[in-house]
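Risk mitigation, structural track. In case the binding assays with iron/sulfur cluster fail to produce interpretable data, a predicted complex structure has been prepared as a fallback.
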Amino acid sequence: MTTPASATGTAAPPRSRSRGALVLVRFARNRLALVGIALVVALVLLAYAVPPFLHWTYHDNDFASLDTGPGAAHWFGTTHSGQDLFALTLRGLQKSLVVGLVGGPLTTLIAAVVGASAGYFGGWTDRVLMWFLDLMLVIPAFLLLAVLSPAFQHGTWLFFVILLAAFGWMITGRVVRSMTQTLREREYVLAARYMGVHPLVVIFRHILPNAASILIIDATVQVGAIVLGETSLSYFGFGIQAPDVSLGTLIAAGTPDANTSPWLFFFPAAFLVLIGLSVAFIGDGLRDAFDPTARGAKSRRRARPAVPRSRHARTARTARNPRRKPTAAVVPAAATQEGVTP
Amino acid sequence: MTHPTAVLGVPTSRPAAGSPVLTVSDLRVSFPGEAGRVHAVRGVDFTLHAGETLAVVGESGSGKSVTATAVLGLLPDDAEVSGSVRLGDRELLGLSDRRMSAIRGRDIGMVFQDPLSALTPVFSVGTQLVEALRIHQDLTAAQARERALELLDLVGIPDPRRRVDAFPHEFSGGMRQRAMIAMAIANDPEVIIADEPTTALDVTIQAQVLEVLRKAQEVTGAAILMITHDLGVVAGMADRVVVMYAGKPVETGTADELFATPRMPYTIGLLGSVPRLDAGDRTALTPIEGTPPSMVDLPAGCPFAARCPVAVDRCRTEEPALRAVTTGAAHATACHRAQEIDAPGGIPSPGMFPTPASPRRPGGLPRAERPEVLRVTNLTKHFPLLRGSVFKHRVGTVRAVDGVDFDIREGETLALVGESGCGKTTTMLQILDLAGRRAGSVAVLGKDVGRLDGRGRRELRRDLQVVFQDPMASLDSRMPVGDILAEPLRTHGWDRARIAGRVPELLRLVGLLPEHAERYPAEFSGGQRQRIGIARALALDPKLIVLDEPVSALDVSIQAGVINLLDELQAELGLSYLFIAHDLSVIRHIADRVAVMYLGRIVEAGDVEDVFARPAHPYTQALLSAVPLPDPRKERQRRRIILQGDLPSPADTPSGCRFRTRCPKYRDLAPAESGRCDTEDPAAGVLGEDHSAACHFAAALEVL
Ligand code: SF4
Ligand code: SF4
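Fallback model:
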């Protein structure tokens, strides 16, 4: 039965697509994810391409209209000192997009690498990394910043983003570590190890993709958190300093007046929500693309495996000892012939 | 339709033997599923008579367990049930939960596969038994406890007075199953439903538990409805058998008829695909091609038509009904061609399913002249036993592997067998780790692993590959099959073009199609996934493959195909296998040599034919005699050696011979002789050209 004549006849079959390609294809099938991408692109265009054409720049003051609501002259209204809120919001958007889109995933990346290394290697690596992680958790961030601030006063935005990420990864890092500790014992990880695959490759090829759901959710949440978190850093003289603005600083400045001059709060907040929403869409799409059992990412052309995936069928199966329990009940409609004998 | 008075009344007299106690007719069950309604049971009829054992057999997905669950009234709320289930003259379908629970545990006893989930972990076994007794009977606490002790004694729990207050997790698997049986018979039920009662247990423990089940039946006179996939267990236990396929009974009859003269192609195929311990030479098994149909939208006609070698056009349009083979007989089949099978001039059942020819083995050189592929010398692995949560201190040593020696020559298969806890898995991991520092030595292809540097070790990994037991767990579910197969190649520096050529080649080698490379593992059936696992192991053209229970998670009809594939690949590619297994029947079909492990040691080793025909170590004898044969006649004639008790903890190995605490021979020895077993650790004694056993009093005994 090892001689599938039907297959031997076909000359050089087309090269099969790898995981990367398949994930991409599956991602592209998710409509909401594409909306997310479009939204991000639109936001970037708005933030960078529109300001040169505006009548007001973000540091101009229109002393004729202080603290006015949205109108024809100032679409989003003005601040107490007469700055055009539309221009300010776009300027803030520029900064926050960069900080959020780079900082969020970076935070997760640090968490993933540290957590997975600690969990996978165990022993001393684990102890040292966890010790460091706990240290980061207990030392108040502002204390460290106060010490560091004179030295890094004039760092670039990149440095600033890294700093933000450095203070946000610890909780996720712990979660990833405990997930890794269970994944490490899985047979496919053992199989890779016995193939001689380098440990770091195992982490990136097998451990992290299987923790992808949580990592992606974390990254999307971190984007929002980091945009807001950036304001607290501004107190220490890092990053965005007046007269420059970010969405975070705008929201912080607008919050006290949310009752009297609601536009000062709502317009920047609305843009933050838009960033968050688009990232959430993309995250969802990525998660489904990585997860082969997700429904949304399946091609609609290919029949779903006709697996009786009812809750009971599954519980009935898992209640069994896996050892001698036959598991061959799963019958993919697309691959019906066991052994595919001609 | 229900009889409320009957439900409340306690049955005063036992139904006479032979009268029907449980009647199931036209039972149908369906569940909502993602892809549509799953018709798990599609019309089941059977009658269970007082005092008899009826076995419902089938592979996974055949609907046998759902049938049992439906009889017990334990189906989830969204299941749709129709038909009738009558206990005596009471209709059980449609009874309220409260009424049903009054019946369960009193009139119907239950034994499940996993007693740990059926026993409440926070109450002691005694408390649960007392509760079960007092719910259904009018007993004082003291009376109930007394009765509980009797029951525990009856099911063979040693020292019940001390054990009665133990918690379920303090019991071993076998003990828990005994406790479960005690609970099932506590209220003298009319019917005991046993759903795969021994599937999770080792064979020697399985033999004990089946013995207890028989005893329980004798004492209570209950009828047993046994749900199982193991044809050996059926042959030993059942009076009558119902074979299920795709939610329907396809053949019923007495056990003798069914095993001797099966008339339905599926049953014939199933019996042909079972590896048998008593098979003669190493022969190829007969697989049933294909997989069972989807229960969501069954094609019209006979559900077995797609896999049936004798299907005709009519089979694809009209579903056969269950009909008596000869009018009035109890033996019935659901097959259009039943009359022709084994009839003069009809279809002979032997050879109905094509058996692949046993692959030619490049016999050639005698064993001693073939190069050594693996040599393990005095392999030892001890784990420290730690206590304390803050300050860990060593309180003992777990001797998981304690001095193991064996070797594998080119082109042969060595099976390492033993029950759980014997150290076979630790031995395997020790070999695969290729770790440098260790007690004892491992040499692969003549290279001592301890002397290799990192580079040499990586090189060696090419020649040493592994296939794991659970085909779902051993494939990364997030990688397409192509990437899975490419992984070993990439790791060992193959370039893209070569990998692209090799992947389809590998898929074909194991009987899959090149197109399958783009699919994810979840899209394949268990057997196909295991083929992918094998393909991955073959990727680098290894010399030695370690097979860790590669077929134990598969259904028998699928298992046969995988075993044949392994056999063919070995002959074709000159591979050597180290086959880790607990199933002796499978070993008989695939191994050339066998090594039996007990408590971290090899107790008997040698040529398979020799060891199986003339086992010399008392443990091997017990192990072989505990394996049920799929043949009721032979089963009845066999004398079982039932081992006492459980495996001792490897942290506390007995002095002298490790098997002493359970050895049947030891008990029969004169004190002068048995003293030797107490004090002197037996060394492996040579018994034949390729046969050795570690027992002071080794003597061959025929047990099959
Ligand atoms: S009815 Fe037809 S397809 Fe079904 S088992 Fe009989 S011969 Fe085979
Ligand atoms: S040495 Fe003694 S105790 Fe051990 S197996 Fe032989 S007879 Fe039994």
